[in-house]
Write a structure and sequence with these properties.
Blueprint: H1 7-43, H2 58-71, H3 77-99, H4 104-128, H5 134-137, H6 140-151, E1 158-168, H7 172-180, H8 192-195, E2 201-206, E3 214-219, E4 224-233, E5 237-244, E6 255-266, E7 272-282, H9 287-315
Antiparallel strand pairs: 1-7, 2-3, 3-4, 4-5, 5-6, 6-7
Helix pairs in contact: 1-2, 1-3, 2-3, 2-4, 2-6, 3-4, 7-9
Length: 317
């Protein structure tokens, strides 16, 4: 005769099983929604192509909402929701790394946003899916799916420009040659994402001081931005179109840099104000979140190049 099962152990196993089921079900629904949107974009490109990626707040919100529905009988409370939303987010990041081949830097940037979205969905689900009205509120799931699928058609491409400037203790004539091209920068990167592996600028080459000349901005890891001079005013202004970006997993499909500019302003006292600009488009949402990160990265790129120009110009005899 077998001894009776330990009810405490059985209850713990059921609890763990339901927690895991919530993690898996929530992320499966998130993956399904992503697949539906990508399929819609693939077969109906008129709906927006690259800018039709679903908002990266709505998808994790759906994940948290579905997970919360599965977790309902456990009565987790706010502490449990905070903890298990974190577990759900971690699983989502693993899925993103494997299924969508996201790079480490992208996952670092995404993680706070995903957690907030999952947590918001889980908290709302805790309120909506209480036993007294869970069946009624489950009808919200198809509505949420429709919102996620339709969201891409309600927005426009997000374009902007990043502007930075630096003062150089040298006249424009000494600054200009180093704006056109410079040898590999010897200094290690100081921006923390660069140190974690995000490509950073190392050197620039150019094919001549005329419109239509080819340029190349080389980044760490062998990444190359191919450019072409669009407008040039020697000693004053250099504008170039970015023709091709490297197929880096941290950049591909997320943003496009269109144009760059270096403007030299003669301060009339033997110094120069060097202004750097980059025009870009974002293909991920919410724009306010990713735009902040994009500006930080482009600013780090600008300042690394411009500080090197400053060092070279001020050291030129």
């Amino acid at each position: 005769m077998q001894p009776p099962a330990n009810p405490t152990s059985t209850g713990r196993s059921r609890r763990v099983g339901r927690l895991l089921l919530g993690l898996l079900t929530g992320n499966a629904v998130g993956a399904l929604l992503c697949g539906l949107v990508f399929g819609l974009v693939h077969f109906c490109p008129q709906y927006g192509g690259g800018v039709s990626l679903p908002s990266l707040l709505l998808i994790p919100f759906a994940i948290g909402l579905v997970a919360s529905w599965v977790w309902g009988p456990l009565k987790l409370g706010m502490g449990g929701i905070l903890l298990h939303s974190l577990s759900c987010t971690a699983l989502g990041l693993v899925v993103g790394a494997v299924a969508f081949r996201e790079g480490v830097i992208c996952l670092i940037i995404l993680s706070p946003l995903l957690y907030v979205g999952v947590l918001a969905g889980a908290v709302l689900g805790e309120v909506l899916f209480r036993k007294s009205r869970a069946r009624v509120n489950l009808c919200l799931a198809p509505f949420l799916a429709l919102v996620i699928l339709a969201e891409h058609g309600l927005r426009r491409p997000h374009t902007s420009v990043v502007v930075d400037e630096i003062r150089i203790a040298a006249p424009p004539a000494k600054v200009w040659p180093h704006v056109l091209a410079f040898a590999p920068i010897p200094d290690p990167p100081d921006y923390w994402l660069f140190r974690l592996g995000l490509p950073y600028p190392t050197e620039t080459t150019h094919g001549g001081d005329f419109e239509g000349a080819d340029r190349a901005c080389r980044f760490s890891g062998g990444a190359v931005f191919k450019e072409r001079v669009a407008r040039i005013d020697p000693g004053r202004d250099l504008v170039f179109d970015i023709l091709e970006m490297p197929p880096d997993p941290e950049l591909l499909g997320h943003l496009d840099a269109h144009r760059g500019e270096f403007e030299l302003r003669d301060n009339g006292d033997g110094t120069t104000t060097l202004v750097g600009r980059t025009w870009y488009s974002l293909h991920v949402r919410p724009a306010f979140y990713f735009d902040w990160w994009t500006r930080q990265v482009f600013r780090a790129v600008h300042l690394r190049v411009m500080r090197n120009v400053k060092h070279l110009a001020e050291g030129t005899p």
